[in-house]
Amino acid sequence: MISCNVMLVILATCNVGYAGVLQEDPIVETEYGNVRGSIKESRNGRNFFSFTGIPYAKPPIGELRFKTPQKLERWSEILDAQQDAPHCIQKNYLFANPKIEGQEDCLYLNVFTPQIRTKRNVENTGLMPVMVFIHWGGYVVGYSSTGYLGPEYFMDKNIILVTFNYRLGVMGFLSTNDDEAPGNYGLKDQVAVLKWVKENIKYFGGNPDQVTIFGQSAGGASVHYHMLSPLTKNLFHKGISQSGSALSLWCKPLGAEQLIVTKMQAQIVNCNSNSTTREMVDCLRKIDAADLVESMKTFKFFSIDPINVYMPSIEKLTKMNPDPFITKTPQEYIRNREYKNIPWVLGLVNNEGLIRAEALLRQSSTRKSLNANFDGLMPFLMALQLSVPKKELLITWEKIKGFYFRGKSHIDISNPESVKSLIDLYTDRSFAYSMYQSALYHKYHGHDKIWFYNFNYKGENSYGDAFAATNETLNYSWGVSHCDELIYLFKSPALFSNELNTNDKQCSEDLITMWTNFASNGTPNENWSEMNNFENNTSKNIKYLSIEGLHEGLGPEYSMTSGLHKSRFKFWEHMALVENLKELNETIRF
Length: 590
Prior knowledge:
This is Carboxylic ester hydrolase. Residues 25-572 form the Carboxylesterase type B domain. This protein is an alpha/beta fold. Residues 1-16 have low confidence and may be disordered. The longest helix has 29 residues, at 416-444. The chain is 31% helix and 16% strand. It has helices spanning 4-13, 169-173, 185-200, 218-228, 257-268, 277-286, 289-295, 330-335, 354-361, 364-372, 374-381, 393-404, 416-444, 463-468, 502-521, 566-573, 582-587; strands spanning 18-19, 27-30, 33-36, 38-41, 47-55, 79-80, 90-91, 100-101, 108-113, 116-117, 128-134, 160-164, 206-216, 238-242, 344-349, 450-458, 544-550, 557-561.
């Protein structure tokens, strides 16, 4: 069999316009100018081209802060694309000892490819599928650098990988609920990336008509949002949402409520919140970026909660804002079937709640405070104010506590049984139930091709170690943490210095194969069945792929099953919550 590298060299010598991976310092001519990359090696020894730190929009600084990303101008010199660009400015409270990192000038992307074009005028033949990854971080933190999202595993396959930064937190989502600062700049940055891909990816050997967007946590929710937004029409063709959807509570779009948050932000940094929104935003544009990000700690009422106060916004269509990202709730878009009916993979990891449980319990002082005022704090840590009227907060919490903590009147959060219950509660409230509801609601409203999965493979490494920091109460034995599937998709030397062991590598190769099969063929695996339709089936026990196993022993195991977290999801279905989908729950039952 002729190897792919050899075939690329043959193609190049046949003068069809593609280069193999033998030349030094590859240079690609984009619509905005030339970029110089470098040559790297994949996990299994295949050479590929790497281009990092390519700008995709003007720096969002000065007058461009809190504005839609602006299109680039051409550059004349060859742009060096051999180093990671800085992160978007942030303070990552999820990790120990958080500090301000990154910068405001951060709108850069990375392209990794097994082939590049040597001629701009050749026909679109031999182009590879494109996968665009949107990073995690609750819209307040996150990284696209190769230290966290190394491309080596994907580059063993015939696909083009794109990763990128987008604006976060106050810089990415501040809104006045009017034309002065309509919000969603971070999501509009993502739209700008997809437009850049549409224009330029063919020069890197990628097919602009075969683009899959995939993301984890906030990235997964972003994928779902792009399936709803009119701004991304014809910019992508498949989607993968990992541990996040537009129905997740932590990314619930807000309207007028965002102005209240913005006024509070203005007061914190000594801008006049009683002035016009134009004057207030002008003042906020002049505040040092690091001071703005640092000031967000003022919103926290307990430990690191809330992680973020800036959410996606429901915008208004006006003359000054002719291209809003969304103008109504995700539920309305789905109900009206105003979504992109594209192949969609979505799912979760088994113990998503470890990310929040570990962050809360890593310090003895936090555990002590939580034990002392468990019933007072938990309704707000669970964001119940988003789901029920104020007068119903405590009674709703009592029902939740009775179910998850088995009717105990006093909760000792240091007790292993209580810790497990807390993890399950965070898992369901923050991630699992909304992901499940998203799949069901789309299917109920006519979405054709959906695949669902649950990832419960326990490898040697875990993001839980990073989230736990020095905490001794929680440890890896509590399950598979939020973000853990990323270990098998991306090399992450900034977090995990060791190479994957035999079983972990097998899990990685399996996931990479399924994800790239989906990008290439529209089906992840012949043994992974699509979600069932509801025309002749009124059961919510949908089929999903179960990914199980340990890094010791037999390794990863795969099976089709149903009934994921059945009793827990059934509990939430019967709660009187704003976000519960009435027409779905009255028709489709467990």
